[in-house]
Structures are given as C-alpha cells and as structure tokens.
Amino acid sequence: MGKTSEPAGSPPPRKPRVMDDKGGVYELGKRIAEGGQGIVCPTQDPRFLVKVSRHPAGDPRTEAWSRQIAAVQQMPIEENDLPIAMPVALVTKPRPGYVMELMDGLVPMEDVLRQAHERLLAEDSLAGFLATGGLARRLRLLARLGRVLARLHGLGIAHGDLSPKNVFVSRSVEHDQVWLIDCDNLTYAVRNSDLQIYTPDYGAPEIFRGELGISTYTDIWSFAVMAFQTLTLLHPFKSGALVDADSELETAAFRGDIPWVDHDSDERNRAAAGLPREFVCTPQLVGLFQRCFQDGLSAPERRPVMAEWAQALEAAAALQVQCEEDDGGCGSTFLWSEAMECPFCGQVGRGAKSSVLMDHLVFAPKSFLGEDAKPQDQWTVTGQAQVVGVTPVSLRLSPPGTASFPDSRALASVWIQGGALTIQVVSGENVTLQTSGVKQLEPLHGRVRLPARGARMALHLGRLDAPHGVWRLTW
Fold it and tell me: Where are the transmembrane segments (predicted)?
C-alpha cells in the first residue's frame, strides 16, 4: 500500500530540539558527523553545533562520556588560543550532550574532498579540485591544521578522532581558517591511552587491530591520510589496485596488512587514478608520507611529528606559481619548476612574467666567525625558497619551512606589479639591497620599485653587523 500524502497546507514536520543547562533551545538539522559516542548536528544558529549522546541518560556509557566531557573542559585549550570548538553549554534534554561554538562561514573539510572527488569521477575533470581552491589553498589549510595539532601535541594532548568531518575550514576559497570539532575525544595521551576511537578510513592500524588506544601518534596517522587524500584525491591504502579488485581487502588495508599505494618496493597495491605526486607534493612531502605509511606502519614512533608536517607544507605553499588567466592559463597555482608548465592545464610559461624564485641564506659578519674565516664562509645556504608573484608575500625573520616562521615578525612585503619588483618595508625595520656589480649597499625605506634588469641581487633582512637572513634572486 502506498504512502498517504500530507493534506494540502499542512505544516512541515517539526525539527528535533534539545535544551541546554542554561535554558537555551536548539533546533537540530541534518547530522554532519557521527561516531560510537554521539551525533553532531547543526542548529538554527550557524555559529553553534550540538553533539548528543547515542545513549539515554543513566546509561553507563553516557555517564562515562559525561565524565570525559567534564575532564575536557578543564584542559588548557582556550588559554592557548587553539581553534578547537569547546563545550559552551551542556545539553540536558532529551539526551545528554554539549553545545559548541564555531566561527561563521565554516564547512566540513569533507565538503572540499567530496566536491573534488565527485567532479573527477563524473567528468574526469579537475574542475572540483580547482573550484575548492586548487593546490595553494590545500597546502595552506593543511599547514594551518598541522600547526594547530603541533601545538596541541605540545601540551601532551591528542585529538583522538581526526577526520574530514571533524575539521572545519573556511567556506570561501579566499580564506584558510581551520577549526576542530568533536573535542570530547581530547585526552592526555602522547604514546597510548585506553580510548580506542576512530573514524573509518582514518584510524591508525594499531587502533584498528585493537593493540593500542588513541595518542598523538594516531593523530599523526589520521592527519597524513587526510593530507594525502586532499592533495592527490586518493586514499593511501584503499585506493590501490588490490582493494579495487577485491573490496573485502579493505579491512586488511586499514589493518596495515597490505602496502600503501606508493610503497617504494612493493608494487602490488599501486593506484592507477589520482593526481601524480610530482604535481602536488614536494620531495620533502613525499618523504614524510613514506615515513608515515611505510616506516611508521608498525612503528608509530617513526611517524613524522606534526611540526615536521607543518614546516614541509608551509615550504611547499611558498613555492606556488600562479597560472595567469589573463595570459591564457587556468587560474590555478602549481609548484615552481624550471619548465614553468602548469600541470593542470598544460600551458607553459604563463607565470614566467609575473613570478621569480628567491633562495634563502644566512649571512654572518666576519666578527662572528673568527680571524681565519673566508668570504665564502660568511654565507650559509638554508635550502628554503620563496616564489614571489603578484600577491604580496611577507618577508619574515625566519623563512617558510622553519619552526619559527609563523611567529617571526615581518620586515617587509614583496610582490611584482607592472613589471617591477615592489618592496614595502615595515617602518623601523632594517632591509638592505645588495646588487651585483654595485659596491655600495642600499638601505631601503617605504615602498621601492625595482625594474627587471636581469641583475643578481640580495635582500638583507636585519642589522648588517649581526647574523641575519638574506633572500637572493635574479631580477
């Protein structure tokens, strides 16, 4: 028998509601995340999410969860200014839970992955990848998430259930804010704990096998899976040929019983799809994935710590070249290469007129090196680099790819405008220009425009009578 239709003009079904301990009432929307402990739903106010228990009040599992939430509320999250949505009120009816507050304009990172993956499957197109911010935004989002987790781990706290559903990012591709939800899994656990919680696809193998509980090491695994997916549009284990041929091997993949898709010697589980690694990963990032998914498969302590991930992602973000739409390109960004070929549209040289690569060095005056120091001893190549394009780039005391980069102060901004390298020096800071063939060094102040002449030059950041950073380029 078919369903009877609703009478014309009948009111829409009433949305479920919950009440908190401060008298607030929240209408719940469609669930956006769920796990063994509870369900996360949006509310009528986009600033708030609610997580409610799967089990009724009085159930031992609910009581244990409530104690965990109480413990989380005592953790030093807000005083360390970490972007983690903490409980702002406790839900009392109809089931226990809590209310968390987010910034406006955020969406689950899962939306970014889904849009890119769906367009790839439906159209064999990277339109979804580009529409969600392309490579540059992905690197910035992952770098920011890496910094947040590094700071959290520095407090001895693991998130415990990292997944694209629990990471929220800016809806606008022009921004790269990152917030974590599902804070009730936070626990003091550097190496191990009693909690065995995970989201399918993202749980570390030792949890999946039931050998260990959540820890900072399991967070690292979950982050690495998310990062690999975000950049390559592949899962590092289940997107390979073995699982494609036999879906029942998916469990074995999560347990770590089959090799990851880019194993350096075992090719059984290679992936035929996804983005080539050289398009989206620097050699440093490739090495980190190798250490995590191969060396760290059965030895969690061998996984790269979050600070390493953050630094490598920031270094990669600094190497982005804009494929200029005005010059016939696709508008995406790509990793700097001598060929200057955009891998996403195949155009060559579309960013060549508006990009320049700078190498970073440290210069030390002879007075810091001793009497026997030679002129070449004064220069130390750090291996860090920065692409400068039409968007202003901050030149900080520390270069991208170093531990102190995010917290170091900016001395100048630099960009290319109208065919000239434009430098804006921060008031009161020391920035000095050294040009090949010119004996006199030139202190820079305010805004300076340098026409392109093919000259070798260096920008000294800081006092010349003390060791300082230098950016070297040809312009």
Answer: none
